[in-house]
Design a protein that fits this description.
This protein is α/β, with parallel strands linked by helices and about 325 residues long. The chain folds into two domains: about 110 residues, Rossmann fold; about 180 residues, Dihydrodipicolinate Reductase, domain 2, CATH 3.30.360. The protein has eleven helices and 13 strands. Strands 7-8-9-6-10-11-12-13 form an eight-stranded mixed beta sheet, with helices on one face. The protein has a three-stranded parallel beta sheet with strand order 3-4-5, sandwiched between helices. Strands 1-2 form a two-stranded parallel sheet. Strand 10 and strand 11 form a beta hairpin. The longest helix is centred in the middle third of the chain and has 17 residues. The two termini are about 35 Å apart. The relative contact order is 0.16.
Length: about 325
C-alpha cells in the first residue's frame, strides 16, 4: 500500500524525479501502471543499479535498519518510511553512517502535509486560542480482526499501533511544540488473539503548562473529533481528513486540480473571545494540501543542499517516546 499509494504516484508525476525501478518479489504489478519501470526480484538487484541515486525504503518496519545500511553503503541517498527504525540508538547510528558516507538520509512523515493538521497549525499561529492549555489528538481505525501483516501484529521491534499510527501524531506534536518534558505511555490489548497493543495513549507534558493527549485505537467504530485544542481565549475542533489517501486509492493523481481539497463539511470549528469579550464562532476551511510538497523537500535537500524539515533531532525524539515502556 505504501509504495502503491504514497510513493510511486508522486515520484512518477513529479518533474523532479525519474521513476526507475521497484522490487516486487511475487506479484508484478508496477509495470501495468508504469510500463517503463524496471521490476527487480531482489533488493540486491535494485541496490546495484548504477542509474539509481535515491532509494525509497517502505518495507516492513523491522527491516528498515538493515535496508538503510545496505542502501547507504551502496552509495544511495535514502528516504525511509515511518517509523524510521525501532529505537533511537539505531537512528543515531544510521544518521552517523550517512554523514560518514556523505549521503542524505531522510524520513518520510507525510502527515505533516495533511490538510487537517495544516488547519490546526494555521489556527495556532493566528493567536486566537490565546495560551494553549490542552490538546487532544486521535488517530483511529476499526480493525477488529488481526491483520495479515506480521510486522504490525507480531511482538517484534517497531510493531503495534504506537509505531503504526502513533508515530504520525508524535511527529506532529514534536514539530509544533518540541520535545515534551515528561511522557507517559499507556497501552492495552483488546482484540481477540492480539499479541500487540491495539489501544495506546500518550500523555505529553510541557513545563509551559501545556498537556497533550495522543490517542490511537484499532477499535473505534465511530471515530470522534481528531483534533481538539483549548486555550485561554478559544477552542478549535477539527475532524480527521484523509482526503489525499482516499483520492489516491481511487486513482486520483497528485497533479489533478481536485487533489488534496477537503469537502466543505470537513471545516474546522473555531470558537474564541475577542478583546471586547465577544464570543465569535468561525468555520475554518482547510487549504489544499499535497504530499508532493514532501517530495519537493526531498529534491531540494539532495540537489540544492537545503535543510530537510523533518530533522534528525525530531526523529530521535519521536523514537525516544515510542520506544519507552508502557506505564503500569
Amino acid at each position: 500500500m505504501s509504495g502503491k499509494l504514497f510513493h510511486a504516484p508522486f515520484v512518477a508525476e513529479s518533474n523532479r524525479f525519474e521513476f526507475v525501478a521497484v522490487v516486487e518479489r511475487s506479484k508484478k504489478e508496477a509495470q501495468r501502471r508504469y510500463p517503463d519501470v524496471k521490476s527487480y526480484d531482489s533488493v540486491d538487484e535494485l541496490m546495484n543499479d548504477p542509474q539509481i541515486e535515491l532509494v525509497i525504503i517502505n518495507t516492513p518496519n523491522n527491516t528498515h535498519y538493515e535496508f538503510t545500511v545496505q542502501a547507504l553503503k551502496a552509495g544511495k541517498d535514502v528516504l525511509v518510511e515511518k517509523p524510521f527504525v525501532a529505537t533511537s540508538a539505531e537512528a543515531k547510528e544510521l544518521f552517523d553512517l550517512a554523514k560518514s558516507l556523505n549521503r542524505k538520509l531522510l524520513i518520510y512523515q507525510n502527515r505533516r502535509w495533511n490538510s487537517d493538521f495544516l488547519s490546526v497549525k494555521e489556527v495556532l499561529e493566528s493567536g486566537k486560542l490565546g495560551k494553549l492549555i490542552e490538546m487532544h489528538v486521535r488517530f483511529d481505525r476499526y480493525r477488529a480482526e488481526i491483520g495479515p501483516k506480521a510486522f504490525k501484529e507480531n511482538p517484534i521491534p517497531a510493531s503495534g499501533i504506537a509505531y503504526d499510527l502513533g508515530s504520525h501524531i508524535i511527529d506532529q506534536i514534536i514539530y509544533l511544540f518540541g520535545k515534551p518534558d515528561k511522557t507517559i505511555k499507556i497501552g492495552t490489548k483488546n482484540r481477540k488473539g492480539t499479541q500487540v497493543e491495539d489501544y495506546v495513549l500518550f500523555i505529553l507534558s510541557y513545563k509551559i503548562g501545556l498537556q497533550v493527549f495522543v490517542t490511537t485505537s484499532y477499535l473505534a467504530a465511530d471515530p470522534t473529533v481528531a483534533y481538539t485544542l483549548n486555550g485561554s481565549t478559544g477552542s478549535f475542533k477539527k475532524d480527521r481528513s484523509d482526503v489525499q489517501e482516499l483520492q489516491l486509492i481511487e486513482g486520483v493523481k497528485p497533479t489533478d486540480p481536485t487533489y488534496g481539497l477537503e469537502p466543505e463539511e470537513s471545516r474546522g470549528k473555531l470558537t474564541y473571545f475577542n478583546d471586547e469579550s465577544d464570543k465569535i464562532v468561525e468555520y475554518v476551511e482547510a487549504n489544499r494540501a499535497n504530499f508532493m510538497d514532501l517530495f519537493e523537500c526531498v529534491y531540494q535537500t539532495i540537489r540544492n543542499k537545503k535543510a530537510y524539515p523533518i530533522t534528525e533531532e525530531q526523529v530521535i525524539q519521536q523514537l525516544e517516546i515510542l520506544e519507552q515502556p508502557f506505564w503500569n
